[in-house]
Amino acid sequence: MTVNSKIFSNLQEINPSAIIELFTLQLSASLHYDYWEASNSYEVGDILGHTTANKLIVFKCTVAGQSGTTEPSAFATASAGQTVTDNQVTWTAQSVDIERFHAGSNLNANGQLVWAGNSYQRFPVQASGFAFQRGQLPRPKLVVSNATGLISAILLRVNKSTTGNDLTGATVTRIRTLAKFIDAINFSDGTNATADPNAEFPQEIYKVDRKSAETREVVEFELAAPTDLAGVRIPGRQATRSIFPAIGTFLA
């Protein structure tokens, strides 16, 4: 894991810039959305996932009506922005929902922080447990405020599609950079001579393994590395001689 040279150099200074911690929560098209149904009435705004399509693509109803008797084959290859005709319904492919947030404060009164062109909303969140311990993969905890009801609303939506899912399988990405490198739009005069969207620590990517607690005040999630989930093995494909004939042979 290599640290960006600008990050590394700044951290060696006597007064290094403050570390900015950001998070993204990305849903899964195959886990967190309803699936297509034959001869079903759809309204504008309905969103569907798909089991065989790109897992980062979902389909939003832009023309209401009744679906056909067979699922559109175009679902499997559609890209963002592409429209798919389904009997009376028109679907438009779009990216899965991504929530972006940060726990700190910044120069904007509305609490937004812009990094690499993306806006991150200020939101009470506490993350811990990212350190590696004795060679074991970390299983961080993410505690998110439920004061506004936002997280519970997301949970209700995904649980309506997949009962008891509780965001299991959603992707959480931890992004860290330094204050001196954030976008110029964050500053009152709109300028930042040291802004650099590539100057960041290596991103840390985890999956939501389970919801460990939910109250009126907070929701707590336990995260895990993609290779540390139940039922996941490495390698994902077993090597046999029928696939790789050279296995078990030796060269002198």
The computed structural class is mainly beta
Overall number of domains: 2
Number of strands: 15
Largest sheet: 9 strands, mixed
Cα-atom radius of gyration:
22 Å
Relevant terms:
252 residues; mainly beta; 2 domains; 9-stranded mixed beta sheet; 4-stranded antiparallel beta sheet; 15 strands; 32% strand
Fold topology:
Elements: H1 5-11, E1 19-26, E2 41-42, E3 47-48, E4 57-63, E5 65-66, E6 83-86, E7 89-95, E8 98-102, E9 113-115, E10 118-122, E11 125-128, E12 141-145, H2 150-161, E13 171-178, E14 204-214, E15 218-224
Parallel strand pairs: 8-10
Antiparallel strand pairs: 1-8, 1-13, 2-5, 3-4, 4-7, 6-7, 9-10, 11-12, 12-15, 13-14, 14-15
Any overview of this molecule?
This protein is 8% helix and 32% strand. It has a nine-stranded mixed sheet with strand order 9-10-8-1-13-14-15-12-11, with no helix packed on it. Strands 3-4-7-6 form a four-stranded antiparallel sheet, with no helix packed on it. The chain has helices at 5-11, 150-161; strands at 19-26, 41-42, 47-48, 57-63, 65-66, 83-86, 89-95, 98-102, 113-115, 118-122, 125-128, 141-145, 171-178, 204-214, 218-224. Strand 6 (83-86) and strand 7 (89-95) form a beta hairpin. It is globular, with a radius of gyration of 22 Å. With 252 residues, it is mainly β. The protein folds into two domains: 5-27 and 98-228, no CATH class; 41-95, no CATH class.
